Amino acid sequence: MRRPLAVAFCALALGSCGTNGSPAVPMAEVPTVSSAKPDKLRVEQAKRDGHLTVPLMISVQPGRDEEVEQALERLGATVESRDPRIGYLRAEMPVDKVEDAHLIKGVSKVDLDEPLGNKLPEP
Question: Which residues form the signal peptide (predicted)?
């Protein structure tokens, strides 16, 4: 007797997870320029620390990875890896050009990729 109730509850819960009340936007209407700029404070800190380049993780719109990679290279970046299946590029970008990366058509988001500190925990 509990199983049908559990199935109904799950269906209701999953149904409410959909679009959060907002209509679905067709891909053609998705903006082609990123609205998510990289964190200015972290870029400024990298400049103060004397870094010439910073690692970036860049989210790319489907099918635009080669176009974005070429644009990044024109800005002086070195693309270290890319995965078109999930739409991400990892690039080493000159610190003074980071602000321009989000202006590239086809870029959804730009994040500074922080290296992991491999310090041993102290007791």
Answer: 1-21
Closest CA to 102 of 78, 76, 63, 71: 71
CB distance 58 to 101 below 8 Å: yes
38-68, pLDDT tens digit by residue?
678 888 888 888 889 999 999 999 989 899 9
The C-alpha atoms of residue 65 and residue 84 are separated, in whole angstroms, by 6
Map out the domains of the chain with their CATH numbers: 31-112 (3.30.70.2980)
Query: What are the residues whose beta carbons fall under 8 Å from the beta carbon of 43, sequence distance 6 or more?
Result: 54, 95, 98, 99, 112
CA distance 120 to 123: 9
pTM, 2 dp: 0.60
What tokens appear for 78 in the block? Answer: 């070195």
What's the rounded Cα separation, in Å, for the pair 4 and 8? 6
Distance CA 15, CA 81 (A): 37
Give 82's strand partners.
89
H-helix or E-strand spanning residue 15: helix 2-16
